[in-house]
Design goal:
Strand order of the largest sheet: 3-2-1-4-5-7-6
Distance between the termini: 19 Å
Number of helices: 9
Largest sheet: 7 strands, mixed
Radius of gyration: 17 Å
CATH class: Alpha Beta
Number of strands: 7
Low-confidence stretches: none
Shape: globular
Structural class: alpha/beta
Oligomer: single chain
Order of helices and strands: HHEHEHEEHEHHHHEE
Strand content: 15-25%
CATH topology: Rossmann fold
Length: 231
């Protein structure tokens, strides 16, 4: 599951700068054309999640609450979980009536088979120990529950080209950091590696790509959405 090539390590300075600007980047990445693709991913996940809007829905890695902001569903029993307290505070400020938990994706603070639907949008690519998180998600999901995942097409040609033409020049010019090194360090898993890990513990029921759903190929798309059930 791990990449075969050596990982490019950012400098300590670049990592420090990146962590300082991380919150700003969460919102910045929802602007422009790339933001439209990301929002489309949220809407796709929300269409699948519609049957669960009055059931217990857990979002792992809720960040600033972009799924609630752009998805559309009015979840009545939503729980947002994130390891970054500062991200979670922004999410709580935006959605004060929703339940937010500062928690770990590798040790979910829920009982076995207690959640109807788990969402994770643009998060799995960052998890260093993805199989451990998937085991936790499978543990807390009910037997008839679903895992709905949104993923950037990391490792694909179009996604990489888009980043090179948009966020890379902007961030390097504004902050003077090696963005390629940061992305390689932060995006631990490619799209295909996430799918490989999912297939071990879940049954993938369907997959949709954005923007070219009629071409289900990673290299010509930007976002992939996955619908899965526990084995």
């Amino acid at each position: 599951m791990m990449r075969k090539q050596a990982r490019k390590v950012p400098s300590e300075r670049d990592l420090k700068v990146f962590h300082e600007i991380g919150e700003d980047l969460l919102d910045y990445l929802y602007g422009g054309l790339s933001g439209r693709f990301q929002i489309a991913g949220h809407k796709m996940i929300d269409r699948w999640a519609k049957p669960y809007r009055n059931k217990i829905v857990l979002e792992v890695g809720c960040g600033h609450g972009h799924h609630l902001l752009y998805g559309g569903n009015q979840y009545t029993r939503y729980i947002g979980l994130d390891i970054e307290y500062k991200f979670l505070q922004t999410c709580k400020d935006r959605f004060p009536r929703k339940m937010m938990i500062n928690g770990d994706a590798y040790a979910l603070p829920f009982q076995n088979a207690s959640v109807d639907c788990v969402l994770s949008v643009y998060n799995f690519e960052h998890l260093h120990h993805l199989p451990d998180s998937l085991s936790e998600i499978r543990r807390v999901l009910k037997s008839d529950g679903e895992l709905l995942v949104g993923l950037p097409a990391e490792g694909g040609f179009l996604y990489s080209l888009g980043r090179r033409l948009t966020s890379k020049p902007y961030i390097e010019r504004k902050y003077g950091i090696d963005y390629d090194a940061i992305v390689h360090w932060e995006h631990w898993n490619t799209f295909n590696e996430v799918i490989e890990a999912l297939r071990i513990q879940f049954v993938i029921e369907s997959m949709r790509f954005i923007p070219f759903s009629f071409l289900p190929i990673v290299h010509v798309n930007v976002i992939g959405c996955v619908r899965a059930r526990p084995t």
